[in-house]
Amino acid sequence: MLAPRQFLISALLLGAALWLSRAVCEVTGAGSRVAYLPSAPELIGLAVLGGLVLTLIQAVVERGIGRTRPGAHLSSDAVTPLAALTLLALPYLPWLADRLPLVSALAGPLGLWLWTMVVVVSVWALAAGLPPRAREGARPRGTWWVAVATALILGSAAFRLAPSALYPGGDEPHYLVVTQSLLTDHDLRIDDNHARGDYRAYFNAALKPAHIVPPGPDGAIFSIHPIGVSLLVAPGFARGGYRGAGLTIVLFGALAGLVLWRWLRSLTGSAAATFGWLAIATSAPFVLHGFAVYPEIPAALSVLVALGWRSGAADTRATAVARGLALGALPWLGTKYAPMALVIGVLLAMRAPKDRRYLATIAAPAAVLVVAWLAWFAWLWGTPSPTAPYGAAHPIALWHLAAGLPGLFFDQEYGIAAVAPVLAMASVGWWRLWRRDAGGRALAVETALPLLTLALTVGAYEMWWGGSAPPGRHLVAALPLLAVPLATLWQELADAPARRALLVVLLGAGIATTCTLVLAREGLLIANGRDGTSDLLEYLAPGDTLTRIVPSFTADRTALTWPLILLLVWAGVLATLWWAAGRAKALTPGRAGLGATVASAIAVSIVGAAVPAARADAAGTGLAARAQSAALDAYDATARPLAIVFDPWRLVPPASVPPLVRFEATPGLRRGPQPLRVLLNMRLALPAGTYAVAVEPLPGHTLTGTVGLQVGRAGPPQQRWPVDTLAGAAWTQTFTLDLNSNFVGLRAADPFEASVGRILVTPISIVDHSRRLHRPPVVATAVFAGRPAYFHDTHADVEATGFWARGRATTAITLAVDPASQPRGVRLQLHSGEGTTTVRVATPGWSTRVSLTPGHVQPLLVPALAHQRLLPVEITSEGGFVPAQHGGASGDRRLLGCWVEVVP
């Protein structure tokens, strides 16, 4: 149990850290720093809350674990890492953040990273400090929990992101079209599926034939993609559509996690196996592909079954057959996996070179599947060559490896170590395995060689620059192999708590990265644009503080000097931290965790200050290119009544700070892709409030045309303005947002954009955070009966006078209430088109059900309270009709529930 003094200090630390986390500090567009601080009474309340949290944790440890295994208690060492939270105060000091730019980022999302690492380190210190019997008692019996935990991790990400703006996306719809063809037409021709628009069931856009090969002699069109994953998800898709297919991938991921942990346990033991499993199962590449309809996760399971299933025990005929089937399945999942499958087959043969029966048992099913795979190409394309679907396009060359090979691991947009830094420590684990004994060398080869083979294959092929693909896509299949050297390294560091602490800090950084990518900005941080700039790093530190210190191998693949220098810099930083941790002896886990956290933060801050000063090769984009402002998002004059401007240091009224923030765009400044094209690529995430926009022309140009305000990533502009200025004169306008909007931009024709030299958006007034109506992200907007309407999902098809609510789905919208309406509310007219359905219309405090039949229009008043200016509404249609089946366009396969029109 904590001593009273230790308890009080820890509670105050937690309270102060929570209070600082409620504060906001940011650099404005004018270059000065501003901050909002909560009130002093709130600091006292949060300190009390910190004490309650500690009391709860102490009770769980001592009365939960301690009940079954006496001796378990919350020691002072377990709360020692909390001292690292004092770093959260650094952004509010009057001078340090000006000299170390990354310090300011601790007041934003990077501060949540610090919290994550402190929590992870504290949990490790607590577990390491438990008596051996208590640790054994706290460990779940059996191995089922690994599969459940993996499924929960992947399922949570799926629940958050699928479907969304990114999922399904990329090649997912193309794989699913093949699945639909198999299920509906019982063939692989997809021309008829595209003609009917079958993909509209899960992909709300026209699916262009960019990934479809030219028609054959009989007019048949076949997909260029491998059919393995299309076959695997077919049962799930048949039962649950896109979500069913995604849950099938989650199941494969859970099985991969289980096989991985059992393999690691047979090699190292339970604790090391858990660390190795966590390093993979929580990494962004694994999680972001763990529910997507791509072949990566099934391929990872195949690799694990081939190499690691029941490893350490004598192979039975069944396990040998399973290994052979897994090997043979890899080419069906992707041609890029064929070389790796061959290497794995050779490695398996080396395990028992004289056991011919064993080798034959593995080779037979593998050979059957490989021969069938080659025969498939011969039947479909007229040649057994796996490159036949690509025709004359073979963008593979060894010179691509100069950027491709290091980029796969370390590129700031797509590298696996850039988003899961603990994976970089696998190189140390391999080195220790190699030095250990002959068995260690064999294990190092079995895990490193398949990964290297896959990396060489895709690194020499330009497709690894995967556009908007999540990081690490093309290495996910071999990613679990990195867990073996990591688990081995953890096991061998039993007497080196400082080095273990550094591994835990790196693991925590990876977990924080994954959480940020999944939770922030509707997942849009996942979609990079191959422009050399990571959206994640820009989000963590607005401007170019982080993006200029992390290597990029995609911006210019011929100019690799600086990326390689930065790679060496970070290797040197990690080596220095590793060396220093090795010199730190006789530390407790808590003290080691505190030291590793603080040392890592200091190292990153120093690099963040030194490298940009030395880089004369890039001017950087600075804060002008940011899309979001924490000072605006968190603005609340009531909750944060203390406002500070640091240049010079002075207290100011909170309302005077928003006008200091500004957003700017010039031609070529904002390069990241957007879901919808906007003027100068300037997409902003803005809170509810009023804003001024100024569009300045290029010298000697005039601005003539129409400018629309786009709110939401889909649908038409919310409002349009005619523009006609004199030469050199700027056009100005103000607009108001009723809701927080993650996608705000201007839309105009190409000739208009060619004349624009600069756009400047400046807040005039911001609605307090506590007074905003918090709704799901705005997907599209419209104006009906002179009042705005906001759509929060893709279950509505917006037209000029109203919208179709999809059948068998719930449409979430927010409608503006006319203050002069009597009785107060929003008047709707509903009809069901050609179908018969029952519709439920609901607000937070009211609901009704309406039965609709063809030809009947049903008026409806949705009531609002006297103070309500905006009315949240949900519309659920139980049935619907398909226009193509009732005289509509043949390709219109939408299931429409009811037509909704807002009337005065």
Describe the protein's topology.
Elements lengths: L3 H19 L1 E4 L5 E5 L2 H29 L7 H4 L16 H4 L1 H5 L3 H21 L2 H7 L5 H18 L10 H14 L5 H6 L31 H5 L1 H34 L2 H12 L2 H6 L6 H13 L8 H17 L4 H14 L4 H26 L19 H10 L5 H4 L6 H11 L1 H22 L23 H10 L4 H23 L15 H6 L20 H23 L5 H26 L15 H4 L8 E5 L2 E4 L10 E3 L18 E3 L2 E9 L6 E8 L7 E6 L6 E7 L3 E7 L2 H4 L2 E11 L13 E5 L2 E5 L4 E3 L4 E4 L2 E8 L8 E7 L5 E7 L2 E7 L5 E6 L6 E8 L18 E8 L1
Antiparallel strand pairs: 1-2, 2-3, 3-4, 5-12, 6-11, 7-10, 7-12, 8-9, 8-11, 13-14, 14-17, 15-16, 16-23, 17-22, 18-21, 18-23, 19-20, 19-22
Helix pairs in contact: 1-2, 6-24, 6-27, 8-12, 9-12, 12-13, 12-15, 13-23, 15-16, 16-17, 16-18, 17-22, 19-22, 21-22, 21-23, 24-26, 24-27, 26-27
Condensed summary:
With 904 residues, the protein is α+β, with helices and mostly antiparallel strands. It has 29 helices and 23 strands. Strand 13 and strand 14 form a beta hairpin.
Radius of gyration: 29 Å
- Quote the beta fraction: 15-25%
Arithmetic mean of pLDDT: 88
- Continuous helix count: 29
Largest sheet: 6 strands, antiparallel
